[in-house]
Specification:
The chain is an alpha+beta fold. About 25% of the residues lie in helices and about 35% in strands. It has one domain: Hotdog Thioesterase (Thiol Ester Dehydrase, Chain A), CATH 3.10.129. The radius of gyration is 17 Å and the shape is elongated.
Length: about 150
Amino acid sequence: MTGKYFEELELGMLFEHMPHRTITETDNLLFSTMTHNPQPLHIDAEFAKTTQFGQILVNSYFTLGLVVGLSVGDTTLGTTIGNLGMDKVEFPNPVFIGDTLRVQTKIVEKRESKTKLDRGIVWFEHLGINQRDEVVCECLRKGMMLRKPQ
């Protein structure tokens, strides 16, 4: 597995994840309908033309999922026990169909588990950045990570 164990995740460590990902109309439409989100801003091109954006706005929860998902291969693939929560999620700029996102992750805090010796807790700060170098998603995620097997 390519994920990092608790001991391998150092404070301040910065990951520039590959691949980057271009968001398609199908991505946005499927995610919005699969999650029963009927917001016309996400699924109705004619309605979206009448808004301040003038076009369909990508569902922000898809954006969040993509940002976290693009980080998995470098950080938590096979080495995580699970997510413990998100303390901060913000979308400072809109995402549109056809935007290409890249993701950076920084390790901002970590501590050993107080009750279980085989794990620790790590705070991941994720940034989703579009092709115009605008931050479109910020997330502070807390994960429970495995320690290296003895």
